UniProtKB/TrEMBL annotation, chain A:
Family: Belongs to the PstS family.
Example GO biological process: phosphate ion transport
GO CC aspect terms: plasma membrane
Region named Disordered: 27-59
Listed GO MF terms: phosphate ion binding
Protein name: Phosphate-binding protein
Ranges annotated as biased composition (Basic and acidic residues): 35-50
Length: 311, 324
């Protein structure tokens, strides 16, 4: 009996090892790009040109929900394709795509700003636009701010809301980390490049929203998609309301592209997936659900240096 | 021992064999001594392998972190003196980047020592309660409570801190709520179980004759605890505190949520601050590999590693002083 028990244990263990080895083999193949995988198992698909293979996407955590949702729908339509979407930050995405360990690297800033020496190897696919604006605690009592005042608030030159016609309340800044793409965009287009004064620093937009909501006199900045309730008040800048239409017409300046980078021109599954992201289907429905603005409807265009021009 | 009679592969005393008939007792006995030697060897190899994997993992992490962490000084030309002593941290400023990590180093030490200041008396007190005052029922209640505290994930501590502690501090103590004080309270709860359980072991391992001798001399229970047991267990108790501090020093997530992550040197306990770990977790994902920003984060990681080595050396020194 004892030996039998041992045998079953060993068999079980061996089975587990084989199972794990099989799984491990599968994931390690994720990094080898292309459609060649699974050719041996499904030789009949040639005539239908069905999409198959695996694709790994990494990068910006702000884009992760959008790309993951799109990937899910894409995989429903193409059951043989396998797309993995990881979040790790824009820097991680750009590093990984430029060293070839993933096929698509998502970033909320231009690659030229993060990796100037390697950016020329990467091809930019702008898949969405995100608008952001300053958000204040509802008790502050202002809804509109002049850009010059906004800069003074963030650089610490104005320290009380009553100077701007609000409540007598000390201003509390909520920043993003130095390296954050959101911070870079906000500094560049809302603060005209001024360096903000020190304040509470949090990375996650949800945490920032929670802090602004709970702290009297707090001001921070959030993407439009976070203004779903009245727990924080979005500010109009120079009288321009932070709306989709104003971003699309170029009147509201604080917005950024969401980039998907590939190393060299996209091919195979990566190309098909990027085309799917740009399709009307995704641009007009999923993007809106996730709080992004469709890049296809933009009436203005911006380059890596921040110059804006009409389309 | 079961004798194999089935025509199948069977595991018998350390060897695989196909057995079709009963082996005579004599053969089995002779074989078994040899087989046992095989078993000895196999066991030894297995155990040595485990040890080698452990040691090589530690050494390779140290080497990796060392090379990565020194890059910012060697390759990017960041001054080590500036890194350790300057209070200006501004790595993204294109024209004039500054790399002074002193506020974060200070923040790490400040929360660690403040947390130990709260957790050490509480933990040691609980240990004395469990071993001396109420060894039976006290231990039965307190032990599971302490173990439960270990099981709560750090992100939950952080979230409770953010939702309950930060507004509480803001309303009743002052400041923004995001402060060294909040970080210290969250951390002290987190390291309490470490300190309590190790201190309990230290107190419990004291020989009985110490207590009996003290009582025989007419000392009261409190006198025995204060004058005999605590001095005798002191190296063990200090080890407990240092281990707790090592844990506090490396904690990132919970602290990040309540400390405010401000780059300035805090001037009071109610000021927001930042630690090495929180700066690493906030920035790591946004920076690209090989960039100066990224390398300076690795340098902070190296400082954390060096500090944890220092904590371990301290623990080894303390336990070598243990006389009982």
């Amino acid at each position: 009996m004892k030996s039998l028990k041992k045998l079953s244990l060993v068999t079980l263990f061996a089975a587990l090892m084989v199972f794990m080895a099989a799984c491990g083999g599968g994931t390690s193949k994720d990094n080898t790009s292309g459609t060649d995988k699974k050719n041996d198992t499904t030789p009949k698909t040639e005539e239908k040109q069905e999409l198959s293979g695996s694709l790994t996407v990494s990068g910006s955590s702000a884009m992760q929900p959008l790309v993951a949702a799109a990937a899910e729908e894409f995989m429903n339509a193409n059951p043989k394709a396998d797309i993995q979407v990881n979040a790790g930050g824009s820097g991680t995405g750009l590093s990984q795509v430029s060293e070839g360990s993933v096929q698509i690297g998502n970033s909320d800033v231009f690659a030229e700003e993060k990796i100037p020496d390697k950016a020329s190897e990467l091809v930019d696919h702008k898949v969405a636009v995100v608008g952001m604006t300053a958000a204040v605690n509802p008790k502050v009592g202002i809804k509109d701010i002049k850009k010059a005042d906004l800069i003074k608030v963030f650089t610490g030159k104005i320290t009380n809301w009553k100077e701007l016609g609000g409540k007598d309340q000390k201003i509390v800044l909520v920043n993003r980390p130095d390296s954050s793409g959101t911070r870079a965009i906000f500094n560049k287009f809302a603060l005209d490049g001024a360096t903000p004064a020190e304040g509470i620093t949090e990375d996650s937009s949800n945490t920032v929203k929670k802090i602004i909501n709970e702290t009297d006199g707090a001001i921070g900045y959030l993407a439009f998609s976070y203004f779903t309730d009245d727990s924080v008040t979005p500010l109009a800048i120079d009288g321009v309301e932070p709306t989709e239409e104003n971003v699309q017409s170029g009147k509201f300046q604080v917005w950024a592209y969401q980039h998907s980078y590939t190393k060299g021109e996209a091919d195979g599954l990566a190309k098909a997936f990027l085309e799917y992201l740009m399709s009307d289907d995704i641009q007009n429905t999923l993007l809106k659900e996730q709080g992004y603005l469709p890049v296809t409807k933009m009436k203005v265009e911006r380059d890596a240096k921040g110059n804006q021009k009409d389309l | 021992m079961q004798i194999c009679i089935y025509p199948i592969m069977t595991y018998f005393r350390g060897v695989w064999c196909i057995m079709e008939k009963i082996i005579p007792a004599k053969e089995r006995l002779i074989k078994s001594s040899k087989n046992r030697m095989d078993g000895e060897l196999r066991g030894k190899i297995l155990v040595i392998l485990c040890a080698v994997i452990m040691i090589s993992a530690t050494i390779s992490i140290t080497i990796f972190l060392g090379t990565k962490g020194l890059q910012s000084f060697i390759k990017n030309g960041v001054s080590l003196i500036e890194f350790l002593t300057s209070t200006h941290w501004n790595p993204t400023n294109q024209a004039n980047p500054e790399y002074g990590a002193l506020p974060f180093i200070f923040g790490s030490f400040a929360v660690t020592f403040l947390a130990a200041l709260i957790a050490a008396p509480l933990g040691i007190g609980a240990a004395i309660f469990m071993t001396e005052i109420a060894p039976s029922w006290g231990r039965k209640i307190l032990q599971p409570v302490v173990e439960l505290l270990v099981g709560i994930p750090s992100v939950v501590y952080g979230f409770i801190g953010l939702t309950v502690l930060v507004p509480f501090v803001r309303a009743h103590v002052g400041g923004l709520g995001f402060s060294l004080l909040s970080g210290m309270i969250v951390l002290s709860v987190m390291i309490l179980p470490t300190i309590t359980s190790i201190a309990t072991d230290a107190m419990g391992s004291l020989p009985k004759y110490l207590r009996e001798g003290s009582y025989a001399l007419g000392a009261t229970r409190w006198q025995t605890i204060r004058k005999v047991l605590i001095p005798a267990a002191l190296p063990g108790l200090l080890t407990a505190v240092v281990l707790g501090m090592a844990r506090a020093f490396g904690e990132a997530l919970a602290v990040q949520m309540v400390i405010g992550n401000v780059r300035n040197l805090p001037s009071s306990i109610l000021d927001a601050s930042a630690t090495l770990t929180t700066i690493i977790t906030l920035n790591m994902g946004h920076t690209t590999y090989g960039s100066v920003e990224n390398n300076t984060l690795w340098s902070m990681g190296l400082i954390l590693l060096v500090m944890s080595f220092a904590f371990i050396l301290l623990i080894r020194y303390l336990s070598s002083r243990r006389k009982l």
